[in-house]
Specification:
Structural class: alpha/beta
CATH superfamily of the largest domain: NAD(P)-binding Rossmann-like Domain
Oligomer: single chain
Distance between the termini: 61 Å
Number of strands: 14
Number of domains: 2
CATH topology of the largest domain: Rossmann fold
CATH class of the largest domain: Alpha Beta
Bound molecules: nicotinamide-adenine-dinucleotide
CATH architecture of the largest domain: 3-Layer(aba) Sandwich
Largest sheet: 6 strands, parallel
Strand order of the largest sheet: 3-2-1-4-5-6
Number of helices: 19
Radius of gyration: 23 Å
């Protein structure tokens, strides 16, 4: 099929590349000309696992191109994905849907033949009905269908999840729209192990919000249990493991730490909390408010843990923070708990140096006032405390790191706020390890 992807950010760029990989001819439309210039070279404007390989392959094969011209996309494509941003409003009261409304409003009159618009952005319930009205009023042709197809990809696995989704949800109202969805996702659906959930638009909207609300609830639940363990001397990692064996609970999303962050969960939970409150679903609003407050509180708990690890006020401490991305596998630093913790430490420690294998540029852009290192050795040089804040494999899986890091630092004190390391490997190399909700692990060597 000839498809367009409107909005080539963290969702849109991997989606465009994945659509080309599935065999479609793809045009990506992006407002930002600098982004278009970069994508046209076959490279992403941010780091995402596996993205550059796919972009490179399909841009050079001519199957994927990028433009700032919506006109060009309207002429070219029979199906348009909308993947623009839905940031939280400045007052926190729901999404700013300006990008979605703007894109659909601009596209509709350019459509001169029956076409399908497939929305992928995360929106609150009621937005699709509003967009449907815009299309009915402004479309340049009859037969312009609207489908809401929420995206469940995980950053860090955006390419893999776009190519191998665990489900496809389509909120729609016409058989033509369903036919178009089945056609564009045919290579995925043909595998036979991916369910297509065809439903109405309101259900698709709520389903996506509910998925993120549930994930955040799970994360906050285990972090609340970490709080209980901190007071009682219990070990939250064992608690998480033990309760997760029950298939009704499961192990996914159960790693204790500094809470959820990124470009999605914080804003999606906040927007959903506001919306459910607005419609009078008070049980849901109370639950989600609690989820948010547990998440915020973990940041102070993490800062206190660093202070405890140091053995007193941090103003005499020099600290290396390993990680700035909100999670491993991406350079995304939006609402990054790692960077927020680094900020707290920056304002209270003698010196805080941040290192991340992929996101130093993005972090520096957002917070030029912090100090960054371009490599791990200079970050670790002569510090009193190492804080592991993003679970990159080079920090958690490199068997040589505990020993090499030991030679660089002044004191072997590690604070792992992601519960991500092999504690035995670090303690065996002489480190004292502090983790949220776990007893301190003393060096064994
Ligand atoms: N990032 C994720 O992992 C993820 C996962 C699932 C859902 N989502 C949802 O997808 C949507 C996009 O998220 P994102 O993280 O990619 O945001 P983003 O800010 O990274 O990307 C949005 C892009 O759209 C562009 N844009 C805005 N208006 C445009 C227009 N009229 N024409 C062309 N381009 C336009 C912006 O310049 C920007 O590059 C959001 O609703 C988000 O909640 C994101």
């Amino acid at each position: 099929m000839r498809v367009s992807v409107i909005g080539c950010g963290h969702l849109g760029a991997p989606h465009a590349a994945a659509m080309a990989e599935l065999g479609h001819d793809v045009i990506g439309v992006e407002l930002n000309p600098e982004t278009v210039k970069k994508l046209q070279t076959g490279r992403g404007h941010f780091y995402e696992n596996g993205l550059d390989e796919l972009l490179e392959r399909h841009v050079s094969a001519g199957r994927l191109r990028f433009t700032t011209s919506l006109n060009e996309a309207a002429e070219f494509a029979d199906l348009h994905f909308v993947a623009v941003g839905t940031p939280l409003r400045a007052d926190g009261r729901g999404y700013d849907v300006g990008q979605v409304v703007g894109a659909v409003r601009a596209l509709a009159p350019l459509l001169k033949r029956p076409t399908t618009i497939v929305g992928k952005s995360t929106v609150t319930v009621g937005t699709v009905a509003r967009l449907q009205e815009i299309i009915s009023e402004h479309a340049g042709s009859d037969g312009v269908d609207l489908v809401w197809n929420p995206e469940f990809l995980r950053e860090g696995y955006a390419v893999e999840d776009s190519l191998y989704p665990d489900r496809v949800v389509a909120g729609l109202t016409s058989p033509e729209a369903e036919k178009a969805v089945r056609e564009v996702y045919a290579p995925i659906l043909a595998r036979g192990n991916v369910e297509l959930i065809v439903t109405d638009p309101a259900t698709a909207e709520v389903l996506k919000s509910a998925a993120n609300a549930f994930l955040s609830t799970k994360i906050s639940f285990i972090n609340a249990m970490a709080e209980v363990c901190e007071v009682t001397g219990a070990d939250v990692a064992t608690v998480a493991y033990g309760i997760g064996i029950d298939p009704r609970i499961g192990h996914g999303g159960m790693r204790p730490g500094i809470g959820y962050g990124g470009g999605c969960l914080p804003k999606d939970v906040a927007a959903f909390t506001h919306r459910v409150g607005e419609i009078g679903a008070t049980g849901a609003a109370d639950l989600l408010n609690a989820v948010e407050s547990v998440n915020h509180a973990r940041m102070d708990a993490a800062r206190d843990l660093v202070e405890k690890a140091h053995g007193g006020p941090l103003d005499t401490a020099t600290i290396a923070v390993l990680g700035a991305s909100f999670k491993a596998g991406t350079s995304d630093v939006r609402n990054s708990p790692a960077l927020r913790l680094a900020g707290l430490l920056h304002s209270s420690a003698a010196r805080t140096v941040i290192y991340d294998p992929e996101s130093v540029t993005a972090a520096r852009h957002l917070h030029p006032e912090y100090m960054y290192a371009n490599d791990i050795d200079s970050a670790l040089h002569d510090v009193d405390i190492v804080v592991l804040a993003t679970e990159w494999p080079e920090f958690t899986k490199d068997a040589a790191l505990p020993a090499t890091a030991a030679r660089a630092v002044r004191r072997q004190v590690l604070v792992d706020v992601r519960t991500a390391i092999d504690t035995a490997a670090w303690t065996a190399a002489g480190w004292t390890v502090h983790q949220l909700g776990r007893p301190v692990q003393q060096p064994t060597a």
